[in-house]
Amino acid sequence: MARHQAYFDTLAADEQDSVSWASALAGLAVLRLVDAVRMDADLIRTDWTGVCAVVDAVTALGEGNRMRRPLMKVMDQLRDDHQDWGAIGKHVFDYGRTLDLEGNWGLAVDVFGMVADIARAARKPELAMQATTALGGAARRSGDWDRSADGYAEAAHMADALGDKASGLTVRVGTANTLLARGNLPASQLILDDVISESAKSGLDGVAALALHTSASIAHLRGNFAEAVSIGYEALNKATNPSAKDTILSDIAASFIELGMHDAARDANLVISLTSRYQWVRWQATINLMDLAARDGMEEAFFDYADQLRYAALDPRLRSYFLLYYGQGCVRCGREEEGRHQIAEAQRFATRQKIHQVAFDAEKVLASLAGERKSRPAEPVQPRSDPVPDGALQVAEALTYIRKTALSSPQAGDWM
What is the chain's percent helix, strand, coil content, to nearest 5? Predict the structure, then answer.
């Protein structure tokens, strides 16, 4: 198989005028330059035209494109007079993380494998361990179970060799996530219980947060939404990574929606929209707030959120969700013709960008609308009226306090 085959496959399958095609092309150009410079360090100075072409490909990515910054940092390191391959590998790793977060798991696997190679050559075992752990996760999300198992196994071996208990336990959480993805919830929970116990003994809050977050996901999948909220909030209080906090809080909001506690879900998303360090995450939370406003018949708020997002530099994934949720909201608000148009556009856009879940959901909504006998405004979604356990109510109260603090604080990011 050719090196970076995943990139060639992506480019061959994509439309050349799409944002995703340009992002993949720029990424491939940078990775191939890294490969070439590893073979010949002088190339960065002798092939001035080729290096400029790669820089131009990265620069051409829009400011709202999340791939632009990590790729440019790789280029800056490559052009440094004293190349530090540990630093180069770290920035390539950051690029892989961005791919992983955006759901480009096949490309992320390729990148993490490359980082592991760079780290081994540079004698950076910690970075190699990070890369193989991340490779295990990305491969799992892409459905490549064998490569996921290999990545986790290598990471576990390195963690053991280094005597790094935190990393070893983190790898075990990854293994639990693989079992969860394959539907073996009991086996996953057994591993998580052990990790949570060992993390508590060793004072490893960051690792405990990862394990608790996955436990919350298991509770959600089992329909134990109040339990998912409580466990998720425990994970939130132990989390040390800002990105992890954002993800945990988003999942807590999803469980609140299942409980019919829309105000609590709204508070959670408001906190994210106010405090996250990442614009992409803030936009995602705002899209969720727009959807909640439509569900609850809050028309003015719905259209206010839509106006905030309409001309934002959303990436293809967020843009597709915005179009779908905006269309559905328009239907609920009685603007059925506009809603149908937006949902159809979401279906076309998502298909073009290969965001298959959104394309499928949009097609399903359009079919449902076509089957209705007459056009009429949709009723707001009614929250569930089942009794809510005290634990979930306490988390909801805590989030209300956090939301008020975030709104009143000039340092909105320092909410916990």
Answer: 75, 0, 25
